């Protein structure tokens, strides 16, 4: 087969007009010939250098169909979420699902499962299991090392995982928000190569100077592109793009291609931008995919121009997986479904309004202050609204009750209060709550919160928005994290969920994702896990009331 | 077949729990039985009471596939756009395309083709042709009567069309923006039943009082819902919903269902809202589709609740055309393609930069002032920006050159200037320009305007955004108005066009639609047709310069 156009040889930072000929999945010839001015551009595909596919709510096979339509042909992915629910069995499920389609999946051995002892987890992945996983070709290395204290204190189990990875000649991914100075140096020196948690240019520069590669993240909640974009030109070769956590309806609106577009419209140099999007992930992780050189695998995309990067065609291993912008059946390797007895871990039982009552005490309450697009929270001291001796949601001040309930054990719910979501009616609930994915819910009334949680329990996982007797639901029967359905259906339902939440007053465009980080006790400042209100600065549980 | 849920009998303003049984496309039994609280709602489908399907950029058969996914099962549609290009042949093309799918199409005989003598048209539909069209069962009546002066002055040809329609027992649709008092009374008394051009509640109330039925319009450019919503409760039975002109990517984000949702969240009474969306069009136009009564055709939809109206299923004549939110092959009646020798009328030839030069004269220039979401323009007097004796686009003041070029004859382009679009670079061009659909373009530089126009000419119709050598294009080979492709592809490309325009500085979310009304000389205040700058208040051509 021959494709013709403006050839964008990112590896050699060179553009020429011509043809690419490929046979049996390999590029056999590159020829320089004249092409019309309005010919399309042929370039390497994009790689998402850090994504938890579970956050797309799709299985890897369905995720891939959405990704290729935006020109993304491979991922570095950490199955951290499913591992927190199902351990190594979950990792294997993701690898098996990925094998059903033509797409370049590279999985991490999850580094921190469970993430902390401060919430009830579904599983453990210890250093022995990590070592076993690293033997697999599908496993590129160790996933994001969130246990910064463990690295800094030479915790034996933590170091065993890192050292096993380095011994296997594989990469250790980092996660070091706000870490700086000597601590950062020690963290990097332990053998950690990357960080996707930079939110300021100063953080990115400090890491790059130490030789780390940073991933600029543009997800559905965390959006760091605008802050970090200058690093693309300052440190070409040490920058990659990633999404971390991104919803399916948003992938359909633009993905890595949208990041390239924004970078170009910002005036950043073309070759630096495309190196970050297409080349650096392959070099860093030692991947052998095609970069348009003779002898390479025929992995490439065709776009209309190098400002907009609107996708026309995608080829993976010579297969024409996107034709005129839409995914084709050529992406399929194996269309038999995986086991429909979906893997899950779900022990929670229905609750009542009495279970989530919060008796009033003297003093102010510690409210979790949130910001759209940030994993960080701030502790706010506020006067509680008290009715009949109970602390309740305070709508005018945007203080909503937040409830967390273990699904990995039979337990009672725990309660906190949260600011920023803006709900004036109803409630939302989810079984996506980093990292152990217990049940988390918030709402304007206790009745709606309980209804939302019990709906989730009935589905054994999912997302729900409730207002009185009306509800919009998305069932996530695979580990309480993923649907078995295709991207179009899940994206549509997810869009409906967000719309309903918005009409109930929600001010956040990605309320479920922002809520999902409210149990993530490794990121400051105050969180709520199924075990209680947690001070993520002091790393200890804390009281709701302050005298 | 049996469906079970909360039955929403809009016709009788009654809700009950039960089952609907249907056989051979007809409802044979309604049974009251208990259903779970979280059962879905079964209700009549929605009707768009006034749409130009051409504006979706899709053929009727492809439009229907998008519409049913939002619960719309029928339309009152005026093939006015294609008729302006191809006359009765164009109307026939639309009817034939509509017959390929299960969907309730009802076509108008276009009333005003050509709309005015002030631009070059592609065809004429005279009263004799209208009379012939009215004999067809597929034709519900006469399309929007835009020739208000013709009605008020008893123009014989205009009255012949109206009287032929009334004689056939069919409906005459109106179009009377800003008409009031005795003129409005005379217009209505001529036999005109509807108006979709109200933009204020006062206009709507005046028409309703005269016995007219008004269509609340929520399109991609004109959005009248917020202004008119109270009339839904004030005049139940005299209100319908419509889109008029709506893009495919926006239909996918919510259509009549979204209007119901907004009305309910605004607190309007459920039965009044659903009567407008589902019942009034059937009654007014005398249509025999199903309304969930025993003996009716099995036309209905299933939604999750009556706040959000998220669509689960659509049935048309008993066929299950939407399953779990996605269109099925049951919508297909005939999957052989229509003639691929696409009907068109296109005589324009490429132009040069010299062709669009505007020599400077003394005085100010009349600039067309535009507002997103309005078909109305205002005349602005501004100091021209002059370079080398020529008037050019003035970016800091957002004054862009506007060019119109006949495609129905070989002619020279005419030029004006326009304010409001905000483009800082590049140009956009289109062959959708109401009503004759000549070529219309605007841009920051003459070079980009010419490139955009010539790209359109090469495609023989379409939409294009140009910036230097980069362009995003959508070919519209069917009459220069429609693609032959499916909704997903066209929606995606249209989204890309808008995105590119936005990145060039465009401030409008629907720039092509707003631009498409800049030649519409029947709507005040100042427009540009292929024959020159037109004062739509005085109904005469006018000079660009004012001393």
Topology:
2 copies of one chain form a homodimer.
Chain A (H helix, E strand, L loop, with lengths): L1 E8 L4 E10 L2 E7 L8 E3 L2 E6 L8 H9 L3 E6 L2 H7 L1 H11 L5 E6 L17 H8 L4 E7 L2 H5 L3 H12 L3 E4 L6 H9 L4 E2 L5 H9 L3 E5 L7 H4 L2 H4 L4 E4 L5 H4 L4 H10 L4 H16 L14 E4 L7 E6 L2 E5 L2 E2 L36 E6 L8 E5 L2 E3 L2 E3 L6 E7 L8 E6 L7 E4 L8 E5 L2 H14 L2 E6 L2 E6 L11 H17 L7 H6 L9 E4 L2 E4 L4 E2 L3 E2 L1
Parallel strand pairs in A: 1-4, 5-6, 6-7, 7-8, 8-9, 10-11, 11-12, 17-22
Antiparallel strand pairs in A: 1-2, 2-3, 4-13, 13-14, 14-15, 15-16, 17-18, 17-30, 19-20, 21-22, 21-24, 23-24, 23-25, 25-26, 27-28, 28-29
Helix pairs in contact in A: 2-3, 4-6, 12-13
Assembly context of the chains: homodimer
Total strands of chain A:
30
Major pleated sheet of chain A: 9 strands, mixed
Helix content of chain A: 25-40%
Q: What portion of residues of chain A belong to β-strands? A: 25-35%
Question: Helical segment tally of chain A?
Answer: 16
Identify the biggest protein-protein contact and residues per side. Answer: A-B, 31 and 31 residues
Separation, N- and C-terminal Cα atoms of chain A: 74 Å
Rg of chain A (C-alpha, Å): 23 Å
Unreliable runs of chain A, pLDDT <50, ≥5 residues? Answer: none
Shape summary of chain A? globular
Mean pLDDT of chain A, as a whole number? Answer: 96
Query: Based on helices, strands and strand pairing, what is the structural class of chain A?
Result: alpha/beta
